[in-house]
Amino acid sequence: MRPFGSAKALAVLLSILLPAARPAAIPSFHRRSMPVIVDERSSARGSSSSSSSSSSRTSSASASASASPSANSNPKSSGPTTEVQGGLTGVLMTLPDQIEDAGLKRIPDDQHPFIAPGPDDQRGPCPAMNVLANHGYIPRNGIATFEELTTGMMEGFNMEVHFAAGLSALNFVSRGNAFANKISIGGESILVPPLPGNIDGNVTGGIAKTGRFEGDASMSRIDANLGDNKNFVQSKFNLNLLQLGKFGDDGPDGNNTVVNVKTLVAMEKTLFELDQKQNPKFEFPARRMFAAYGQTAFLMAVFANGTTNATTLPILDAFFRNETFPENWFRAAVPITGGTNAKISSQIAAAIPTKPGRNNEKGEYVEDPEPPAPFNSSLPCAGYLDQAKSTPAVLQNTTGIFKKNVDFLTGILFAAAKVNPGCTQFAPPSGPANV
Ligand SMILES: *[C@@H]1O[C@H](CO)[C@@H](O)[C@H](O)[C@H]1NC(C)=O
Ligand SMILES: *[C@@H]1O[C@H](CO)[C@@H](O)[C@H](O)[C@H]1NC(C)=O
Ligand SMILES: *[C@@H]1O[C@H](CO)[C@@H](O)[C@H](O)[C@H]1NC(C)=O
Ligand SMILES: *[C@@H]1O[C@H](CO)[C@@H](O)[C@H](O)[C@H]1NC(C)=O
Ligand SMILES: *[C@@H]1O[C@H](CO)[C@@H](O)[C@H](O)[C@H]1NC(C)=O
Ligand SMILES: *[C@@H]1O[C@H](CO)[C@@H](O)[C@H](O)[C@H]1NC(C)=O
Ligand SMILES: *[C@@H]1O[C@H](CO)[C@@H](O)[C@H](O)[C@H]1NC(C)=O
């Protein structure tokens, strides 16, 4: 049985995050009835063999989206942009403009030198975020606003605004303060207060807190259940390098040093096998499977040298181990869209038969039940529902600027999810608080 359809369909279905074709200036929510172009160009920005699917596809997004929040993009012009609730000042979030000089550029520029983090600076499980902070593309203390995270991803990695905003939104609804507009890219911080009324407990977790977005089978971190899930672990990362040594393409740095899809598939299989065996409480639900394959795809889509489109062993080493931009590295020549990344993650998903699931008490991997229709239409759609079910329901019960920000963030996530054909239903936050 193939609940998520054929491999070819997956290539389209998996493009959860938004395509390039959408003009940044037009709020996605106002374009509900318009066709969405799922951009599939530049599949393998490396030298892997790419499945020769059509160059672009049109899918109708005539979503029965009536249940979605009456979201807009938090217009920059009207209404107050700050508000006090429970002694805390809230700040209205806005979607930054797509950066204008979104071309090939050597990164870092002179304004963004590497400075190692100090003892009070937050760093976490996401190497890309740590690199952006180490170079000041986001605040060096590791505490950022929605706009800062999104703009940092655009400037440092040339990620297209909707792709960047989708990732910011995921992190903010799960582990940020969506009212104060602050998130820690690491652990808890006094600079990120709890939500008004402590509705999600008396602290705000930060990206490193496991359970909602952060999860098992990471490329370079230990499962939270087994130890430190925040810091780079060379021995775990070496497993990936072993796969590169077996499956990588040849390049200027040597044979088997250039990342391709085969390498990524082997990596994901290896990481799953290791952690499923080692971690009695191993969990790989739909949201985590979707995120894990998406993050692995970053290696080719986001970390590649923009002049060659190749991700090499030294490039991986710089990003993961040193948490710095590699020497003489160029960001992508054209903005990287969610579709670009999804083209790669869909190939990973198609090559691995494992279904979302988790270990039982005996340490045996058991598949999760399939989600109800229409969320069973694709892995991205299943992941979208699963993520909403891990987002505190109480966020729905907020008011004023807090509610506006929640609607803004969940609206971004739904807009991304419904790019996948059949993923037509808004999933409100419906998970437990204070976990
Ligand atoms: C989703 O579930 C519905 C209802 O059980 C079923 O009819 C449909 O075939 C399923 N879709 C997929 C893609 O499995
Ligand atoms: C790299 O990818 C970009 C975007 O797809 C493309 O325009 C460019 O020609 C590629 N460059 C090389 C050297 O392959
Ligand atoms: C937060 O709540 C926990 C119990 O849930 C308690 O142990 C802790 O002292 C509280 N911390 C603060 C700063 O209120
Ligand atoms: C790379 O592989 C080719 C054969 O595929 C071999 O001729 C060459 O010596 C190898 N290069 C290195 C640096 O090992
Ligand atoms: C990583 O850091 C080490 C120690 O500072 C340095 O020797 C090495 O050149 C760096 N490598 C990369 C790829 O940045
Ligand atoms: C990126 O590609 C350019 C052009 O080939 C090259 O000079 C540079 O060294 C490469 N950078 C890295 C980090 O591989
Ligand atoms: C949201 O508010 C409604 C109405 O007051 C209440 O019934 C519901 O339990 C609240 N939900 C949460 C998750 O707090």
TrEMBL record:
<keyword id="KW-0732">Signal</keyword>
<keyword id="KW-0408">Iron</keyword>
<feature type="compositionally biased region" description="Low complexity">
    <location>
        <begin position="44"/>
        <end position="79"/>
    </location>
</feature>
<keyword id="KW-0560">Oxidoreductase</keyword>
<feature type="region of interest" description="Disordered">
    <location>
        <begin position="40"/>
        <end position="86"/>
    </location>
</feature>
<keyword id="KW-0479">Metal-binding</keyword>
<keyword id="KW-0575">Peroxidase</keyword>
<dbReference type="Pfam" id="PF01328">
    <property type="entry name" value="Peroxidase_2"/>
</dbReference>
<dbReference type="InterPro" id="IPR000028">
    <property type="entry name" value="Chloroperoxidase"/>
</dbReference>
<dbReference type="InterPro" id="IPR036851">
    <property type="entry name" value="Chloroperoxidase-like_sf"/>
</dbReference>
<dbReference type="GO" id="GO:0004601">
    <property type="term" value="F:peroxidase activity"/>
</dbReference>
<comment type="similarity">
    <text>Belongs to the chloroperoxidase family.</text>
</comment>
<dbReference type="GO" id="GO:0046872">
    <property type="term" value="F:metal ion binding"/>
</dbReference>
<feature type="domain" description="Heme haloperoxidase family profile">
    <location>
        <begin position="110"/>
        <end position="350"/>
    </location>
</feature>
<keyword id="KW-0349">Heme</keyword>
<protein>
    <submittedName>
        <fullName>Cloroperoxidase</fullName>
    </submittedName>
</protein>
<feature type="signal peptide">
    <location>
        <begin position="1"/>
        <end position="23"/>
    </location>
</feature>
